[in-house]
Amino acid sequence: MQCRHSNRLVCLVLAVVTAGAEPAAAGRRETIAGPVEARVLKVIDGDTFLAEALVWPGQIITINVRVRGVDAPEMRSRCRAEKIAALQARDALESLLRSGHVSISAISGGKYYGRVLADVRSSEGIDVSAHLLGATLVRAYAGGRRVPFAC
């Protein structure tokens, strides 16, 4: 960064503040290739589950995982049809992850409300996103504005 301010102290402060901010911004874009083995603790909805991930020997973290590439109907929708579709999507994800073990990869954080975003494979090797899309229980999603499912 080149500072054009006449006061060197102001330039120094700007440099320190900017340097401190850059790692945090970079961290949001960081992706962990994986795969990381995880144990499913609870399915939350049709595209999110709570898991314990073994990130390092003896180091387990508990985190919500959002399945990349899909958007499920909302459980809290005011629309009855969407609520019913949400329950079906959640039940399908629960059934798919019944063994309790998954492999997550291409793990990233960011704007997902305390969740990580990841590609997910069941213990049987099934691509969770592709399976849910094939069953037409969810929509393909690559970010951006969410479109309501019904009503």
CATH class of the largest domain: Mainly Beta
What is the oligomeric state here?
A: single chain
Radius of gyration, whole Å: 20 Å
What is the CA-CA span between the terminal residues?
51 Å
Please give the order of strands in the largest beta sheet: 2-3-4-7-6
List keywords for this structure.
5-stranded mixed beta barrel, OB fold (Dihydrolipoamide Acetyltransferase, E2P), alpha+beta, two-stranded antiparallel ribbon, globular, disordered N terminus, 33% strand, 8 strands, 151 residues
Describe, in plain words, how this protein is organized in 3D.
This protein is of the alpha+beta class and 151 residues long. The protein folds into two domains: 1-31; 33-140, OB fold (Dihydrolipoamide Acetyltransferase, E2P) (Beta Barrel). Helix content is 30%, strand content 33%. The protein has helices spanning 8-29, 80-96, 128-134; strands at residues 31-32, 36-45, 48-56, 59-67, 70-71, 101-108, 115-122, 139-140. Strand 2 and strand 3 form a beta hairpin. The model is unreliable at 1-27 (pLDDT under 50).
